Structure formats: structure tokens, C-alpha cells
TrEMBL record, chains A, B:
This is Glycoside hydrolase family 127 protein. One of its GO terms (biological process) is carbohydrate metabolic process. The lineage of its organism: Bacteria, Bacillati, Actinomycetota, Actinomycetes, Micrococcales. Residues 523-627 form the Non-reducing end beta-L-arabinofuranosidase-like GH127 C-terminal domain. Pfam families: Beta-AFase-like_GH127_cat, Glyco_hydro127C, Glyco_hydro127M. One of its GO terms (molecular function) is hydrolase activity. Residues 26-419 form the Non-reducing end beta-L-arabinofuranosidase-like GH127 catalytic domain. SUPFAM superfamilies: Six-hairpin glycosidases. The keyword Cytoplasm does not apply. The keyword Hydrolase applies. It comes from the Bacteria. It comes from Gryllotalpicola protaetiae.
Length: 630, 630
């Protein structure tokens, strides 16, 4: 029961760059290796334990037993959390085969398969005795959304070499979807995009064209107003991206995860159907959203109310939603665009978003998470109960689980497969997009190549590539140079082409190519049109966004009252320090005046921390944008 | 069936200042007179027409007929809209008796009275066949909230001279509440405060102490965690002000209307029970919220998600909720505090909030409204359908009616009674708090006094008080001087005491006292701690906050791209103008950079408009805070 271990979560039939599969690239240690170990040893088990305890996995048992009516645990899309856990387990099993995990995985898949109905339908919230009928709430029921996650979990299983039970379940379910929603079926879409990506990838690995055809239909139907249902409350059609057809939209809008999953699915369809217009529309939406609707951390979503993009340049740091899942969705889209185009800008946003938005979610121990990732915490957050469900956007430290808990499992599947986003191949060479400690072993037109990449990145800018094996004839090794690394240096002469050094020559075993990226701390200013942070500056260091946290200020200080001169930025003993001043404006009875208030100042030196690491030392206030940059 | 026409919406048993009743003060024309005419001729009928058409009034007929189960129109608190309409009608009838309005009023009251149950209970969403049981959802059911609005409507009827059907309904309902929630009844409160104010006022006018006792119980129970119900989602106990007892809270927090209605009711209870500690707590909450959580317009509410106060200094102009009803609630609280203390700061906030938040809601014709009142409109709003329900916080022009439509009726009752907030009396004199065209006729210790107040206010700063009748002995005439009017001049020598000129002398018929308030446009800067508007400035002119609207900019300009030097502020031909520069920062692919972008500028002179009048000339972008003040 073995399938080809090629390609990662995405494997386009036609693309400029070829993704590497789990047999071709592996993280070997370092910064990312540590995170994969924590993910494997803590997060995956944590997710399963929680979902067993609160009955989300048990839903499948009750569905299989026919007793689910009236006893369903959790909201309508908790099935998807189990599927994302399965996807995480599959990638983890593909990375480091573990017999105990394999047994847990198989047992869990068996419980899910038992709940599949005879016609292929599989959802624990709909269609059985005492439940709403199938597809009776396409706006918010999330049935097709959940199916999409099951398809992605099945793809992970197939791409890691196993064509067993879950892929069988997925095919029967996909066949059912085609029966109900296919060309002669119901003219409808799901309120939450996701299935489109899943269907295309299932097509790519099974060759079953109906799945692609179904995805194409879902993309074509979107934006035509099929989502009607009850009044949408504060949301409106834009929330669902059902306001404008995908190929006509100019930017990302509405619910951020929905927008990015939809765009990913649309690009998958465009790539498989050679729909250049659709692909161009997605690229335009990405570019406009990145230029005007994206936080410095790569996070997106400026509105709490509908977890949505704001208007252009509406990027309030204190009300940033910057949902972890939206960051992951952004990585998924950028990865597709990178494969399609080879353009380094997509790899750069992946790096920024992974390091500064997605990684901010899990706690150091991998057992608590941020659902949202604010850029300014005004009041010290509460300490969540380790045994209770938290609300998703409370001002608190990271929480173990949420009533709506899409982030933990999304983090788990992303970290388990993160190395698959680090490098790609073409016929004539290898492209390194992200740096860390990993090894590549793949076959080019000229023959096999094996490389070891070593780096203290993201803290240290030295990247050493050691050739372990190379074909006799010349190949091209491309090393991406981030936009901020203006003085990047390579150990040999090589042209800088489209954001990467390209070393095109013959290589011998033991050859070393060394890239030095200057990771000194630097000051970053915002576009004047971002009203909420006018007059502020931020500090970045290499690919990391830094933050000022109150635990690094004198006792009793809050980040809300400080300002700084960016010229006082200093690096000392590897730490980044800033001279910050605390303003004491006195107590006004009305915060608006004809004159500027007299302000007294006291100063202190504060160390900055990588943003992703904040809130690991107890409740604190925190800010990325510091007043004083004007 | 006549009651005493004294006191307005509020008439404390003990207070420093005595409110004037509808026989004692009347607006005669001018700025406020025009608004009362539009309110009487358009808004009141508009509200009734809408609520007939969409069945909110019909709910009472169906309840009376026993057919309401399954056929209730609208959400659980639409009864309160009908009661606020009744209150508006009552004040309007007290102001200018109109036989046709009287007939409509009586017919409407009869339909409501017919729905009252034998034990006094009256709500169209609960308790009848096919409906949830009474008081089964105190968190969100709004039963007691609706009762409070009925009580206030009944008080308006009583204070305008009629002790007829609605007051009878109110007393039976209040008696029922005491039976169910009284000292020996259920230890519970309503999720939305409001009934407390209504009960105290009903006590004040009927003398029935049980109503005061009941209000005291509701205040004492709040903050003790009686609101449990289902998970509150994003809200939490703070949303309901059930997190901390009223007397222990330090500032306003949670849902803004709830917070301000609760504080108003608490102060009413404190004043009637001589509870100095409770009164001091409300004053502290007011002061802290005004100093740190209030927009320049007087609007409050920084969060869309829960219509709530934000943290201190969290006042984003583009995400300002600044709900019209919260502005009205703020006026209600400040009025109570003004009566209690005589402190001019409360009158000043009333003026600011009425002119710059409440008045921004109704369209010029009185037939469309803003539910929220943003301080920065980034995209031109849509034009709402005049025949469809709108969502409450859409980016649009003013809408005719909302799914949740608390604002139109709240505006109607406020404008119908607004003159009652303009002046007060004491034994020895009269205090003028707000300016416009109105007449006062009241009796002081020394005898009758009649005054005519004339002013082009808020556009013109000249206020002329003409004595129409005066007692022989000396009395004190106090004229409030707003904080911004630093060069205010009076036509005679008089001391400026606690924010008001006090003219204490004998007056003769025909005597004139003239106050000149300098209403030149002036620049206002924000407290540095309000991150969202750092480096910005606003323009105020007299009591009016001005706004920059794109219709006053060259074709194709948006307010999002402009900045200005506050020194270019000019007054010309009565208009306020500013030289604004449009920034063209070029098209960046990423809105953060190590260098400030090169910016090209083109300039234009723009007229500013009073904020309340914006969006009356078609879709536009608008901002109050203008970049360039640093």
C-alpha cells in the first residue's frame, strides 16, 4: 500500500518550481528542528487528548453508532480539527516513522471511517436522526469545508507513502460531493472555502478529473450570490467572498482565512486548467493585500468582529486580529504562487509570516496557543485555566484550547510539514528559499544531488551549504537573499538574479558555498497612510520582527506610556537594546487640548525580544510599533 | 386626568439644580427648533410607519389575540422601540399639542395595553404559547430592559400632564416586577440595564417606594455574577457590567449603552437613598471614562464586536463605534450628574455629545440615521435602499431603518425633549447650560421669572438673554462659559464662578444680558497616549467638531491621502478653511521600509464642515483627525 513519496502538501502538474517530497528534504535540527520535536512530542498529543476529552473525536463514534442526534460535541466544524490532526500525524509519520504514533493514527482513522455513510457522506453535525438535514446551512454549516480538510489529510497520507484507509474514505466522499454538487447537481458553494484546494490536490494525486472539475465549479460559482440563507448580520456577502467572482476581485477582503483558502484553491484550479486570467487575478489580489492590508508580522485581519481584512491601510496594531490560521493560509497561498512563478517575493512573505505570525501562536512547550496575534497588548493578559476552553480572542496568555479551536491543529500540521516549504528543484538545479538546518536529496536532469544546509538562522546570518553528492555536469544552486539583506555576501562570485544568488557550476562532494546575511537590528518605518502607527517605528533583526515587552522595562512601567528615539538602537552581547523614555503627561480630565501637554520623561534601557517569543514570561504589555519615529 | 407638568425625563427628590418641566422651558426656533420640527413632522411618523410595516407594532396585536407564538416580528427587544416612540410622542405632545398626534398616540397605547397579561406582565417575545417561557433568557432576552423603556414612556406621559392609560399599564407592570424580582423574589438582573432608571423615575412621580426598592435591588445584585446563561462568546461578564459591583468599578467598561444606562440608574438610586459612596463611584467612572475612553465628539465605544468601550486611550477613529444610543446614554448620565452637583463639566459634555455625536445620527430630513458614528470614513459608503432594513454598522450613508433599530426612536425621544436639558432653576436663580432660542418661565423663591434666550449658536457665539418678567428682589442668572471660550465676554461686570458668569442683581422687564463666546476655529491636539491619532490634529469651532469630507476636496481626492499644517487654518466668509496637501507616496509593494518614502505633494484649499452634517451630500470619505499635527 505504498504511494510515491514526492511533493508536499501541494504538487502542481505544471509549475516553474517542483516541490520536494518527504524523501527529498528533511530538517535535521536547529531552530526549526526544535519546533518539530516539540510539535511531535507535545502538540500532536495535546490536540488528540483535548479532542478526546471534550468529545470532538467521540462525535465520530456516536455518529457511527447512530446516537449522535442531540449529543454532538462542539460547533459544526469540529470534524475539521480531527482531520487537521490526522494531517499533522501523517506528515509527522512521513518525517520520522514512530510505531506508537502510527498505531494511534490508524486507530483514529478507523473511528472516522466507521462514521462514513453508505453514500460516502461524512459529517457528524448533519443528516442523522435528530440533526439538521445535510446541506441545509451551506452558509455556516461548514460541511464541504470539513471535507476539504479530510482530503488534505488524505493527500498527506498518500504523499508520505501510504495508500490506505483514509485515502479510500476521501475518494468515496469526493465522489459523493461530485454527485451532489457536480455539473448536474446543486448550484451551490460552501460558506467557508477550503474544499477547492482539497479537491484539486486529490485530483493531482489520484488523477481523477472529476475532482478538478468539481473544484473548478466551486470557484466559478463563487461571487454569484448563491450564499443566501438567513440575514448575515454584520457580515454581508463580502465576508464569504461571495460578493464578486474570484476572477474579478481586486484585493483580499472579508474573512481572512476564507479569502486566502479561496485564493489558494482558485490558483490550484487556474494552474491545472491553464486559466491565465484566473491566476493573474489571484496574483493581483495577493499583491494588493500585501501592499496595503498586511501587518509587519505578515499577519492579516484588522477586524475582530468578522475576523476580516480591513480597508486599505487600516492596520491598527492594538486591534490586530492576525489570526494564526490566516497566517497559515497566507503561507499556503504564497507557496502556491512561489511554485507557479519562482518569484522570491513569495518566499520572503512565507518567511516573514512563519517566523512572526504563525510561530507566535504556540507556547514554548507546544501546549498552548494564540488564536489571534495582536501587535500591541495594552493590558497584561489573564492566565487561562489549563483545563478550560478559552474564547479565541481574549486578552490572555496563550490558551490550551478554544471553543473554536482551528489554530492548534493548523499549527500542528504546518510544523509537521514545514521543511517541505524550504526548498524546491528544477531540472537544472536546486533553490533554497528558507534557511536552517536541513538536508536535501533529489534527482536533477544531470543526476542525483545531496546537500546539507547549516545555519543559526534566524538569529545568525551565516548559511553554509555543503555538497554531499553532486552530478558531474554543472547545476545551478540558488540561494534566496531577503530584501532586507542589502549587504549579503557569498563565498564565491555569483550573480544576484531576481532576489537570489545563482551559483551555476560543477560541484564536487565537500564543496562549500557560504552565504552571509547581515542580521543587524534595523529601524523600520510605516507607510504614512497607515494612520494607526503614524509617528511610530519598529525594530527588525534579520527576518525577525522584535517587540518591546513590559517585563523588560523597569518595574511598574507599561509599554503604553513609552517612546524612543530610533537612533538609540544598540546591539550588545547579541541583544538588541533601545533607550526608551516613559512619558508622564499628568492627569488630564479630557484627552484633547489646544496645547501640547508638558510631559516629564524618565528613561531606561530595554532589551527587545523576538515577537514570536513574547508572553512566555507571564502577563505583560507589549508593542511592536514604538512612538518616536517621526 | 392631569398630572403636574414639572420636571423632565429626570426629577430627583434631592439635587443641587432643579430641572425645568415642559411648562417652564420651550425651544422657540433656531438651530434646535428646526430639529424639533423635523423630528415632529418626519422622524416620529417615520418610526411609526416602519414599525407598522415590519410588524413590530403588530406584535402587540398578535400577542393580545394569542397568535404571537411563531409569528413574532424582529428580535427580542423590539417592544422597546415602540415604547421609545411612545416616549417621543409624549414629549412632543407636551411641547406642541397636536390633535392628530394625540389620536395616533392613544390608539397605539390602546394596542399595547391590550397585550398586557392579567398579572401585569407585558412582553411580546416570551411566555405565550409557542414562545420561550418568561425570564428564561435574562442574559439576552431584554424583558426587563423593555419594561424600563415602558416606564420611561409612562413618566413622559405623566410629566406632560396626563395620568391615563400608559401610566396605568406601567404601574401594573412594575408591580409584577416587584412580585417576581423583589426582596422575596428571584435574585437576578436583566442582561441589559435600563429598568433601574425607569423604576426610580416611576417612584419619583408616583411615590411608590417599592419601585425604588426594586431598582436598589437590581443595582446591588449587579456585579455579583447572577448572569450566567450560555457561554457569552466574545463578551464575558464585563460586557454586562456583571464583573464588578457598581460601587467598586473604577471606569466604564463593556457594552457602552449598558454601562451608561446602568450608571444612570445607579446614580438615581444613590440620590434617592442618600448613598454617597455609590454616587461617588459613578462620578469616578464618568471622570475616568471621559479622560481616557471618550472620542472628541463625545462618542464612546471603540469596539465593533461587542459595541464596547476599549481600554484606556484605545480610541481608533476609523473603528470608532460611537453608537448614537451610547451618546444619548452619556447625555442621560451627565444630566443626572449635573443636577446632582451643579458642576459645569457635565453640561459641557452634554453639549459636545449632543452636537457632535447624537446629532450626527439623523439625516437632514429626519428619515435616515447612523447607528454608529465613525470619526474616519475610509471608503465612500454605499447608498442604502430606502425600503430595506440595514445592518447597523455598515459603511453606508444614513439608513432608514435597521435590523437592530434602537437609534431612530432614541433620537426621536431625545430631540422631542431636548429643551428640557438646556436650563435649570434653584430657589434663587436660573442656570443656562445650553444656548439657542428658547424661553423660560418659572417660579423662584422671590417670584416668577420669564426669560427669552436668543442665539445663532452653535455657529454664532452671541447669546442674548432678555428679561420678560422678573421678581422685584435680586436673583442670580448663571450663564455657562464653555471651557474652550477663554475670551468669553459678558455685557456687564459679573464674576466667573465655576465655569459660569453669575449675574446676581435685581432685574427689570426688558433688561438684556449679552454673552459673547468666541467661536473662532481652533486647533486641537490629542493626548500622546492615544496611539491611533498620534501626529494628527483636529479643528473645532465653538462647540462644533469639524470634519474634512472628500466632497470638499478636488475631484478624485480621498481624505485618506491628505495631511495639513495646522498653521494654515483660516476663516473666510464664515467658512473654515485649511490648506491640505495630498501625498503621493508612489506604489510600494510592502508598506514598511527602512527609509521614509519620497513623497510628492499637491495642495488644495478645503472647507471643513461640522461633523454632524457630514454624509449629506452623497457618498464620501471623511476624517476628523488630520495628519500633520506633530
Amino acid at each position: 500500500m505504498s504511494a510515491a513519496r514526492t511533493g508536499g502538501p501541494v504538487h502542481p502538474s505544471h509549475a516553474v518550481l517542483r516541490p520536494l517530497g518527504p524523501d527529498e528534504i528533511a530538517i535535521t535540527g536547529g531552530f526549526w528542528g526544535e519546533r518539530q520535536v516539540v510539535n511531535a512530542q507535545a502538540t500532536i498529543a495535546h490536540c488528540q487528548e483535548w479532542m478526546e476529552r471534550i468529545g470532538w473525536i467521540g462525535n465520530f463514534d456516536r455518529a457511527a453508532a447512530g446516537t449522535i442526534g442531540g449529543s454532538h460535541a462542539g460547533i459544526e466544524f469540529v470534524d475539521s480539527e480531527v482531520y487537521k490532526l490526522l494531517e499533522a500525524m501523517a506528515w509527522e509519520l512521513g518525517r520520522s516513522h514512530d510505531l506508537e504514533l502510527e498505531a494511534r493514527y490508524n486507530a483514529l482513522v478507523a473511528r472516522i471511517a466507521a462514521a462514513q455513510e453508505v453514500d460516502g457522506y461524512l459529517h457528524t453535525s448533519f443528516g442523522r436522526d435528530g440533526q439538521p438535514t445535510r446541506y441545509s446551512n451551506l452558509e455556516f454549516g461548514h460541511e464541504l469545508y470539513c471535507f476539504g480538510h479530510l482530503f488534505q489529510a488524505a493527500v498527506a497520507r498518500l504523499r508520505t507513502g501510504y495508500d490506505d484507509l483514509l485515502p479510500q474514505v476521501a475518494r468515496r466522499l469526493a465522489d459523493h460531493v461530485y454527485m451532489v454538487f457536480g455539473p448536474t447537481g446543486r448550484d451551490a458553494v460552501c460558506g467557508h472555502p477550503e474544499i477547492e484546494m482539497g479537491l484539486v490536490e486529490l485530483f493531482r494525486i489520484t488523477g481523477e478529473r472529476r475532482y478538478l472539475e468539481q473544484a473548478e465549479l466551486f470557484i466559478a460559482r463563487r461571487g454569484t450570490g448563491t450564499l443566501r440563507g438567513a440575514a448575515f448580520g454584520p457580515f454581508g456577502q463580502e465576508y464569504f467572498q461571495d460578493d464578486v467572482p474570484v476572477r474579478d476581485a481586486q484585493t483580499m477582503r472579508g474573512h481572512a482565512v476564507r479569502a486566502l483558502y479561496l485564493a489558494s484553491g482558485a490558483l490550484d484550479v487556474a494552474d491545472e486548467t491553464a486559466d491565465a486570467e484566473l491566476a493573474a487575478a489571484v496574483r493581483l489580489q495577493w499583491a494588493n493585500a500585501v501592499a496595503r492590508r498586511t501587518y509587519l508580522t505578515g499577519g492579516v485581519g484588522s477586524h475582530h468582529q468578522d475576523e476580516a481584512y480591513g480597508d486599505d491601510f487600516e492596520l491598527p496594531p492594538d486591534r490586530a486580529y492576525a489570526e494564526t490560521c490566516a497566517g497559515i493560509a497566507s503561507v499556503m497561498l504564497s507557496w502556491r504562487l512561489l511554485l507557479e512563478s519562482g518569484d522570491a517575493k513569495y518566499a520572503e512573505l512565507i518567511e516573514r509570516t512563519l517566523l512572526n505570525n504563525v510561530l507566535a501562536s504556540p507556547r514554548e512547550d507546544g501546549r498552548a496557543f494564540y488564536y489571534t496575534n495582536t501587535l500591541h497588548q495594552r493590558i497584561p493578559g489573564a492566565v487561562p485555566d489549563e483545563h478550560e476552553l478559552s474564547h479565541r480572542a481574549e486578552a490572555s496568555l496563550r490558551a490550551p484550547w478554544f471553543e473554536v479551536s482551528c489554530c492548534p491543529t493548523n499549527v500542528a500540521r504546518t510544523l509537521a510539514s514545514v521543511g517541505l516549504y524550504f526548498a524546491t528543484a528544477t531540472g537544472d538545479g536546486v533553490q533554497l528559499h528558507q534557511y536552517g538546518d536541513y538536508e536535501i536529496s533529489t534527482t536533477l536532469d544531470a543526476g542525483e544531488v545531496r546537500l546539507r544546509v547549516s545555519s543559526g538562522y534566524p538569529f545568525d546570518g551565516a548559511v553554509v551549504v555543503t555538497v554531499l553528492q553532486a552530478p558531474e555536469s554543472e547545476i545551478a544552486l540558488r540561494l534566496r537573499v531577503p530584501g532586507w539583506a542589502v549587504d549579503a555576501a557569498l563565498s564565491e562570485d555569483a550573480p544576484l538574479i531576481d532576489g537570489a544568488f545563482e551559483v551555476r557550476r560543477g560541484f564536487a562532494t565537500g564543496d562549500i558555498v557560504r552565504l552571509d546575511l547581515p542580521v543587524d537590528a534595523r529601524v523600520t518605518f510605516p507607510d504614512q497612510r497607515i494612520d494607526a502607527i503614524r509617528g511610530d517605528f519598529a525594530i527588525e533583526r534579520g527576518p525577525l520582527v522584535l517587540a518591546l515587552e513590559s517585563v523588560d522595562l523597569p518595574e511598574g512601567w507599561s509599554v503604553n506610556d513609552v517612546e524612543a528615539d530610533p537612533a538609540t538602537l544598540r546591539s550588545r552581547e547579541g541583544a538588541t537594546e533601545l533607550l526608551v523614555a516613559r512619558r508622564s503627561p499628568g492627569e488630564a480630565t479630557w484627552p484633547y487640548a489646544s496645547d501640547r501637554p508638558q510631559i516629564e520623561r524618565e528613561t531606561a534601557t530595554a532589551r527587545l525580544v523576538p515577537y514570536y517569543a513574547w508572553a512566555n514570561r507571564g502577563p505583560s504589555t507589549m508593542r511592536i510599533w514604538i512612538p518616536g519615529g517621526s
